[in-house]
Amino acid sequence: MEVSVCLASGRTWKVQTDASSTVQCLKLEIQEHFSQGFLRLTSSTGHLLEPERSLEEEGVKDGDVVTAVVQIPRIAANSSAFALCASGVVVWGDANYGGAIDDDAWRQLRNVRQIQATQKAFAAILADGRVLTWGHASYGGDSSFLQEDLVDVKQIQASA
């Protein structure tokens, strides 16, 4: 199938792909073609396409237009771990300092608006205003006891 890809700059590209290909595979082709990293893809209706799903599962059809939205990467770090946020989150470093994240939390970390690091933990505001935390519980990595209060959050700030 053929899909037209558009950037906000007006640049376009027609790409041949398979409906069973994942959105991630298409995104990688687009990043290489335009020499542009940190992209998020949207359908012609404005729906954000999930990277792990196939184009067919996301409803992309032959002749459709896909828009590539450039993401601004966000990074937070403490003394022993880093978190990089773009279309998802990549963490690395010492697991005791937030350098590891469980699969359930990782799946929720899409469209992060802001991220902060404490001495041994991280907190991120998601697009829907919820806050997700991970890392050492004593340093802010466990917010489960007040999760129902962490809604419609506009800004977070970290401390030691």
From TrEMBL:
PROSITE patterns assigned to the protein according to its UniProt record, in alphabetical order: UBIQUITIN_2
InterPro entries per UniProt: RCC1/BLIP-II (IPR009091), Ubiquitin-like_dom (IPR000626), Ubiquitin-like_domsf (IPR029071)
Transmembrane portions of the chain: none
Chain ranges of the Ubiquitin-like domain: 1-71
Protein name: E3 ubiquitin-protein ligase HERC1
Organism expressing this protein natively: Cladocopium goreaui
